[in-house]
Amino acid sequence: MAQRRILEMFEKDPAGSHLYARLLREAAIKDRTVTACGQTVHLKRGQLVFGRAQWADKTGISQDVIRRIMKQLADAGEITQQNRAKFSIISMRSLENAPAEPQQGPGKSPAEPHSKNNEHRDKEDGSSTDLVAAAPKKVVQNLDWSPINLTPEHIDAVKAIRKKHGSKGKVSQRVIDTLGQEFAKARAGGLSDEQIISEWDTRGWVAFKAEWLLKERQQNRLASPPMQNRVYQLTATPADVEFANKYLEESF
Fold first, then answer.
1. How many Cα atoms within 13 Å fall on the side-chain side of residue 137?
2. 16-66 pLDDT tens trace
3. Is the residue at 188 inside a domain?
4. Maximum CA extent, the chain
């Protein structure tokens, strides 16, 4: 079986076997329509939307390790990849070629296809039929980061700040949309993305509102008088006075 061959390839690679099992579980969902980065995507059984940053958050595996594992799967002929602008569609070959699950007949319970003999055999040889599982009850939402209009590096910085200051790094689409509005206000007030992120991190805020920075910036401007209104008092030294008196005597 192709799946067992891949698992044997990752026998001494816990990260590889974990990521492969997660990919199989998500790709095993029947034909469906999902939204990714603001785009509607139609997926068949055996396909899933993939992005390294998204899956790094989902699995806890670094993006570099994920890149290496996906290359191994591609070299082994287990996956093919269709690149889109902001994400990829991965096709799992072992699921695409697998026969469709049979329909439940009348009077049969969902547990009947897994007989006691099958369960006993799985325990003996260490295999598991759970790798190609039924569709989960809830499909994980693909987050669209485009409203915040940041580079991938800045997005990683935002995630790190939220995790560092108490939100455990959890981000919802509502949070992203709100941050997009606040970043736009801060930019309109003259702040760069680097300034926004730096000030946010320095102050230790979990959330970010543009008015917090802009109000403080306005107060600092009012506290510093413009250059033309500053008055400087010059004090003449005794030598200056003597020179001035001598100049006046010679002039008259």
1. 0
2. 888 888 888 888 888 888 888 888 888 988 899 888 888 899 888 999 999
3. yes
4. 127
Q: Does some domain include residue 111?
A: no
Domain that holds residue 10: 2-98
Q: Which helix (H) or strand (E) holds 185?
A: helix 173-188
203 domain residue, yes or no = yes
Please tell me whether residues 16 and 82 are part of one structural domain: yes
Count, residues in the chain: 252
Do 151 and 93 belong to one domain? no
Q: Number of folded domains in the chain?
A: 2
What digits encode the pLDDT tens for the residues 205-219? 877 888 888 887 777
pLDDT more than 70, % of the chain: 70
Q: What's the confidence (pLDDT) of residue 107?
A: 46
Distance CA 104, CA 120 (A): 23
Are 29 and 136 spatial neighbours (Cβ–Cβ below 8 Å)? yes
- Identity of the amino acid at 96: E
